[in-house]
Amino acid sequence: MSQLRERVWPRIEAGEIRPIIDSTFPIEQVEDAHALVASDKTIGKVVMIVGD
Fold first, then answer.
1. Range of the domain at 34
2. Which of 11, 12, 22, 34 could form a disulfide with 44 if both were Cys (CB 3.0 to 4.6 A apart)?
3. Structure pTM?
């Protein structure tokens, strides 16, 4: 965990490493998002949008 803090987080904060977002869903579609993740067909993160 210390290597993560020392090596990865600074690069994330500097914008050198960015996550790949596969898709976004409003929280009301959590079942659809879960089904997508379970399908193993994503190439990045599935993000839930909460609120406005």
1. 19-52
2. 22
3. 0.70
